[in-house]
Structures are given as structure tokens and as C-alpha cells.
Design a protein that fits this description.
Elements lengths: L1 H13 L17 E9 L3 H13 L4 E6 L6 H10 L3 E5 L7 H20 L3 E6 L4 E5 L5 H6 L6 E8 L13 H4 L14 E6 L3 E6 L2 E4 L5 E2 L18 E5 L5 H14 L4 H9 L6
Parallel strand pairs: 1-2, 1-4, 2-3, 6-10, 6-11
Antiparallel strand pairs: 4-7, 5-11, 6-7, 8-9
């Protein structure tokens, strides 16, 4: 129902000019099973596909943190804000290097999202705009999460996808066209992101893991206690498809450009990207 309402409101609001839309932060009094918290910067071409996909699998609300975007993200997000699907938070920062962004910008945003969701949403997934939750073994994500109600959080393994050697994917068709990926059990896919219970998650200590209340902890999808880097790659029940490179244009002109600014080793990033085009 939430997905249908948002779809209707998106069409309706799109009939009005951008000037008549307003940016607002809206908090719902509904109780949700699952929300998403994410921080973004200049992701306007990718937001609609990502939001619509997650609404379609049962995510009910989004806490989205805008970090210094200069693109037309408001045109995309205002309809979702107005239908109550998105809470939009302005989260400006300096951007001197990757370490600063990770621990001084992204982690505090994730922590804030958990605080905002507490009392509103039982669970919140802390993921990026290039990450898509895929449920493998249940009819709905809420039924899957019921299995982990004893835990503070569920760590969901990556499956990292590459460019599929495509220069530029049509807008809104990332999932359709980017089909080549890293070998499913590659060491890099031991990484995970967290879906946490807002009652028990306290602080994001890195983008992959949280501190939890006393006697609570995170588990992988096989119910083994984990600290965010899982013992093995577990994708039989749930996985997180990570389109880290997106297409060649994004990888070269956006991802690598940012990494150059952060003084990240560019060749190692290219090698990593190449390893994400090995398996169909």
C-alpha cells in the first residue's frame, strides 16, 4: 500500500513546477517494520530506481542525508517527502579525505538515522545508494527479519557488481544492465552492512558495524555472532548487491575522481573494479 501511495504521489507532484515543491523533513507517527538510512552526494540520477526498488520489497521509510549535493536531487526526492516515504536531512561537511568522511560524516549520519528511527521503525538498514537488499529465501523481508528478533542487528554480505564493460547505463536501469560481478565468495564479499534493531543499536563505529546495548550483538544470516566482517560469505537467505563501480562513466569520472582527491591509490581501485567483472 505504501508503495502504491508513493507512486501516485510521485506522479501527482511531478505535474507541478519545482518552485511549488518545498524541501521538508517529515516524521511519521506510523510504526514501521523496516526503514533505510543512507547518506548521499550528487546521486540524483540513481535515487528513484533505488527508492522504488526498496519500496517494492517492503521497505517502508527512508532517512536520507544530503551531503553537499549540487545536482537536482530535490526534484527527485520532494514527491517522496510529500507522500511521507522520505525524511530528508541536510548533513553538510568538509571533505578532506576518505577517513574523515567515513568516521566524521558517514558514521555520525548513520547514528543519527538510528536515533530518528527509534520508536518509529523496529529495524533500519544502513546502506549506500549503490547497495540493494535482495531477499533470497522468504516471501517478505519482514518475515526474514523475524528470525533475528533476538539479535541487535543482522550483517548482510556484499555481492559486488562491476561495470559489465558498459560505458553508460540508461538512467534507472542499473539493475537491468549491470550483471557481471565479483566471484561470489571472494574475500572482499566477506564485508557486510547492518540492518539493526533501533531499540538496541547505539553507535555506528564504522559504516559496516554498530555498538549495541548490553547483551545484544550482531549476527550473520547463519546466526553466527559477527563484528561486520563475516566468517564466510552467506547469501542463501539475504544479500546486498553492491554496484560500487556503476558504469564505466561513473567509475572513471566520479568514483576515481573522488578517490584522487582523497589520495587513494588509483591503480588498486582499478584492479578492484576489474575483479568485479569476473562472474555472471
Amino acid at each position: 500500500m505504501k508503495f502504491l501511495i508513493c507512486a501516485f504521489m510521485f506522479i501527482s507532484c511531478s505535474l507541478f513546477s519545482k518552485e511549488k515543491c518545498r524541501e521538508e523533513t517529515r516524521y511519521s507517527t506510523e510504526t514501521y517494520t523496516l526503514s533505510i538510512g543512507s547518506i548521499f552526494q550528487n546521486e540524483a540520477p540513481y535515487l528513484k530506481e533505488w527508492i522504488d526498488y526498496h519500496l517494492g520489497i517492503g521497505v517502508e521509510h527512508f532517512f536520507l542525508y544530503n551531503n553537499n549535493s549540487t545536482d537536482d536531487y530535490l526534484t527527485v526526492l520532494i514527491p517522496y517527502v510529500d507522500c511521507g516515504c522520505v525524511t530528508l536531512v541536510q548533513w553538510p561537511s568538509t571533505d578532506p579525505d576518505g577517513t574523515y568522511f567515513t568516521f566524521k560524516v558517514q558514521c555520525p549520519a548513520y547514528t543519527d538515522a538510528v536515533k530518528k528511527a527509534r520508536g518509529i521503525s523496529q529495524w533500519i538498514a544502513l546502506i549506500d545508494i549503490d547497495e540493494f537488499i535482495v531477499v533470497q529465501s522468504h516471501d517478505s523481508i519482514s518475515k526474514l527479519l523475524d528470525e533475528y528478533s533476538y539479535a541487535g542487528g543482522l550483517c548482510v554480505n556484499w555481492q559486488c557488481y562491476g561495470t559489465s564493460r558498459i560505458d553508460q547505463v540508461p538512467q534507472g536501469e542499473i539493475l537491468q544492465h549491470l550483471v557481471w560481478k565479483m566471484k561470489w565468495n571472494a574475500p572482499f564479499n566477506h564485508n557486510s552492512k547492518s540492518i539493526v534493531q533501533t531499540e538496541y543499536a547505539n553507535e555506528c563505529i564504522n559504516p559496516h558495524f554498530f555498538n549495541y546495548s548490553k547483551f545484544k550483538y550482531a549476527v550473520d544470516s547463519n546466526h553466527r555472532k559477527t563484528d561486520g566482517c563475516c566468517h564466510s560469505v552467506n547469501i542463501d537467505k539475504i544479500r546486498l548487491n553492491h554496484y560500487w563501480t556503476r558504469d564505466e562513466n561513473f567509475f572513471r569520472n566520479s568514483r576515481l575522481a573522488r578517490y584522487k582527491r582523497w589520495k587513494v591509490n588509483i591503480q588498486s581501485s582499478i584492479d578492484l573494479a576489474n575483479s568485479m567483472n569476473e562472474e555472471y
